[in-house]
Amino acid sequence: MACLDLTVVGSSDAFNAAGRAHSCYLLEPHDEALGPVMIDFGATSLMALRRLGRRPSDIAAFAFTHLHGDHIGGFPFLAIDGMFNEPRSQVMKILGPVGVQSRLEALLGVTYGDILDRPRPYELDFRELLPGGEATLTGLAVQGFPADHMDPPEQPLCLRFTVPSPEGDKVVAFSGDTRLGDGLMAAADGVDLLVAECSGLKHPIGRHCAWEDWLTYLPQCTAKRVVFSHLGAAVRAARERLLDEVPAGSPPVTFADDGLSLTL
Fold this sequence. Notes:
- By secondary structure, the chain is α/β, with parallel strands linked by helices.
- It has helices spanning 45-51, 69-72, 75-85, 100-112, 182-188, 211-217, 233-237, 239-245, and strands spanning 4-10, 24-29, 37-39, 61-63, 92-96, 124-128, 134-137, 140-146, 157-163, 170-174, 193-197, 226-229, 253-255, 261-263.
- Helix 1 (45-51) links the parallel strand 3 (37-39) and strand 4.
């Protein structure tokens, strides 16, 4: 029996390749006691969420894989939306890597000045998650794994969520931005769904995963299903060809587009 929905709100890389929104995802357990969680929230995320007819005030919590602009840049718009447009009453729970509170508050200050000092109808609840750490967010178990994407003192994360269900827990992992490595592979191990970045066809593309990496790793991947997101223009243009290249023995593969919805 299904216990959660996953919506790809945005599926692009930092450059909004092919006119898509920055990569972000909405995880919605069917159990009403477990609040919806948004994973990452880039500069285009509020627009993308509204295109899907969704209200940010209905989202209980926000989890961030890392603190680059295409993953956190929408926070100021989210914050003021809950103050002035669709007033938010429930606490906005925020989980992210080391430095998440200071970075988001600084971003809000740069974009809207003294806005943090003004009356706000909701509270902000910031918590940090270390690589190797565990937390509970709106009733979901969250594990953090090290991502290979940024230099210290930054500590980017791959995130793994366990959604409890009487019919059997479901586990979804998000790569964030990272090169293929031990942290990503540990986060992906045995999950029901892996949402993983595929930013380019081949290297060099910085500290990101390329299709050439996945061609090697997919036959070893123990995730039950893989959705590729954070797609660069070349990957999106070639996705039909790439599906034909998926090695034998790999889990089922999908290339995401904005609005893709999956039920687990």
